[in-house]
Each structure stands twice: as C-alpha cells, then as structure tokens.
Amino acid sequence: xxxxxxxTLLMEEEGFTFTISVSETDFKVNxxxxxxxxxxxxxxxxxxxxxxxxxxxxxxxxxxxxxxxIQFDNQIYEQSEKIASTKIGLENVRRLxxxxxxxxxxxxxxxxFSLKLKFPIVFFSKV
Length: 127
Known about the structure:
Elements: H1 2-13, E1 18-22, E2 28-29, H2 33-50, E3 57-64, E4 67-75, H3 88-99, E5 103-108, E6 112-122
Parallel strand pairs: 1-3
Antiparallel strand pairs: 2-6, 3-4, 4-6, 5-6
Helix pairs in contact: 1-2, 2-3
C-alpha cells in the first residue's frame, strides 16, 4: 500500500485525483520487491499518459478467495488516442505478475480502462 500511496501523491501534484478503497482484512502476500516496483512504475506511468485528469482514478484493494486484488479503473483521456502505444509495458506487467505467481486482467472500452492485479495471499498459522 505504501508504494501506491507514494505514487498517488506524486500524481496528485500533477492534478490527478483518486478514490481509494481498501479491504479491512489483514493479509500478506509474498512478492519480490523489485518486480513489484516495476509493476507499479509501469501502471502509474500509463495513468499519467492516458488517464483523464477530470475524472477520479479509482483504486480498490480487496481480498477474495485467497487472493489480494488491486484494481485500477480510469476514464481514458480523449487526446491519448493521438499518443502511440505499443502495449509493451502492459505485457511486461503481465510477465512480471506471472513471475510473482499472480495474474493481470485488462478490460478496455472506448472511454474506460480497467486493470486488475491478482496476488495469492500467504496465510500464517499460529501454533
């Protein structure tokens, strides 16, 4: 959550706004930190390029069926159609998520973009 907070603060300085909802459930995920930094760097870089500043970017963090899901949902900026995209960054995110035993799901329409990261939760039992 700290990485997300830091990235949103930087984007707020650029005029973006966020609505963030976080699950009340305590959980832990087992991830390598460097790939996780790269994943979030790529996602927030894409948000800076393609998200509409006039609409909130929604971020939700929740748990479901032994997974932590982090979802990003945003309105697509109309002028971003003029910005060429190779989608290489999202393919890198997909590859990095698979290395973390996670998944990436993307939904895109003419006006909205949604991306979901799914990480397996690690439960610790007390003896």
